[in-house]
Write a structure and sequence with these properties.
CATH architecture of the largest domain: Alpha-Beta Barrel
Shape: globular
Number of strands: 34
Largest sheet: 9 strands, antiparallel
Structural class: alpha+beta
Number of domains: 4
Helix content: 25-40%
Length: about 775
Amino acid sequence: MMPVTDLMPTTPVSAQACPFRRIALVWAILLACMVPGTTYALANDPVLLDSPAGQFAIDPDTLAISLTTSQGKRLALASPAFSGSRVERLSDHEWQVAAGTARYKVAANIEFGALRVSVRSQGPSVLNWPRTADPGAIRAYAFPFGEGSYVPADDPGWLDWMVRRYEPESVLSILSMPFWTELREGLSVTWLLETPLDTTFDVERREDRARPGFTHRFSSLSPDAAYTLRIVPGPQDPLAGARGYRQWLQASGQFVSLNDKIATTPEVARLGGASHIYLWGSDPLKVADIVQWRAFLEQFRRQRGDDTQLAGRLWKVLDDEKRKTVEKAFKAAARNPGDIEPWLKREVIRALNAALLKVIARPEVTPLPGGHDPGGEVAWARDMSVAMEQAFGPLLAPARGWGGGLSTDLVSALQSAGLRRAWLGVSEWRTALWHPEAIEQAKAAGYLVGVYDSYGSAHPSNLAATWSTAQMGDELANAGYRDQNGQPATGFAGRGVYVSARAAHDYARKRIDAIAQNAGLNSYFLDVDGAGPPREDHTPGRETSESQDSQSVRQRLAYPARAFGLVTGTEGGLSWYAPQFAFAQGMTTQPFAWMDPDMKDSRSPYYRGRYWPDETPSLYFKPVPLKSSIARYVRSPWFRLPLYQIALHDSVVTTHHWEYGSLKFSNEWEATALLQLLYMVPPLYHLADEVLDRDLPVIAAYDRIFRPLHERLFNVAMVDFKVLSTDRALQQSSFADGTRITVNFSSEPMVAQGTTVPALAARVEEPDQPVRVHEMSTVFKAR
């Protein structure tokens, strides 16, 4: 380097007279400050970072990103976020960008072979970045839509589906895990968000190609929060993103295994091999609880006018319509011989159940806002059974078996069918409170027993169209999340509000305490919480960022296990909350009926049903075909990928959403049963006294195949998944213990690795065990 003195003039010269001397002087000062051997970049020079996959280049002016691979091929990765910006370089890998009124500070580095870019904003702003730069170079995508989807980049049907379904919405309501993977020539590129809060995901249509992207909103409620993205090159493998995400979770201390959860909550071990079964028939009595119908109706008829008798008090509260129905039953019983048709018995039982709730007073034991009293329900059930036995004792079955859902009779039926493991859920917690004997019998049989609870929507006390979980009292009905304009977030189905998790914190704990303690449960299901998304709240005095809101949801999800050792599950199963729950319903099959008008049209053969009758709602119990044009995107194995299982199989047990159980779609039974075996995820069923003869034989037949495998593999990592045929009908999963499960989804036999697999069958290879082949046609012969 030339000495500085050699650049200085020997006699005074004005800068105006000699501009070249002035420039030379500036450079002399800059050069004098430089460290020998160091390369310095200008403000608009690309930011270059070397990784094992090649060299990343970031345009600091626009945030456009490219990768030059080790073979010298340049790949455009991220499109420019803005233009006309001004850049101030802070160091080689850190700079500030002024784009319009927005001011960003950006830092980039290589970490574990990935490009890590972190952006902070000096104030509220919106950054539409990153978005795929060259969709034409992408052959296929792997998206964590629920379990996971394989999407060919040139498939027009998938493009249309994604553009229609995935309008800009929170990442944590669309993607079960915050990444997507692009499969390119010779490699994959995964876009992984370390910070998925305040960020939306969407898919644009660009020249008949999908162009996915994230948009981040820097919020005034979280002014210091960074938006951090990882761009991860990997092998040309659709599972690369899921594998990388699992590794990142483990490295960052965010992965909690099922074995870890069992160590703190031992009952979690009961999830192994357990089918998930919702039990219906939540009323106090079922038809079979009256064993002498003619005599019962005759006594009721004689005593209906006597207010000193239970029959008289029940008759008095019946409305005109119910009285007419019961009078029909009186006439039927009076005939010789009495001919009381099954439908008429059901109507009488419905009338009795409604009347009992009015006539037998509920003592006040653990009163809560919203009109709930779990302790009072236990006392009510005891008083009701005493009153009924005193009035009609010899005409009734033993009281411990009453009820058509969670009852000792139904638990005995499951045991007799050979089910050694099951998760039993009830949609109405009063059912559990009314039948403590059934809960004790179920737990003794090795089952988990849980109730459905929810703290999503809150309804005012004067709302007619309401449901029990949303009744939290008027104070919480006025504690909805509010947007920046002060407007409350309307609740589910347009009723009430979505209530602030922070506002509902104390109430939720009190209600969970009262239900869990009085019912003697060993499991708990919290609807909505694991489905997201986190919300902001701009209510004055209760301002809450998405990060703070999600922390409140985490605390609620963790509470049942921490306080009572309950095995906690949730709807959805977002990986964001995975450390806080043990099972999730709604990952194997996510809700999708809103995408197809035929599923909501009662005139259509694809109509999914309604919430009636109460004992067996057709929405859950009536099998219907699933339209092929919908099944292609939501159920078809051809486009399925076990991304969630590769990342989290040994952390969370997942299954279907309860509206899309294993026996719901009549043309999907075999494929669903095979998928459950391939992914090692349990089936989900609905049972009631009325359908035991129809459905329990199928449940038991499948349980004999599934349970022994799942008991052993539910807490074992899935380490690989392969598609073994060009038509994708032959697939294989592998687990860390050496188990391989090969499934043929085709209606014709296929050859896998030199061995023929029958049509619609699973071939199971276990260490030190003979190979087993299970054909689904055998299972469904039981129905």
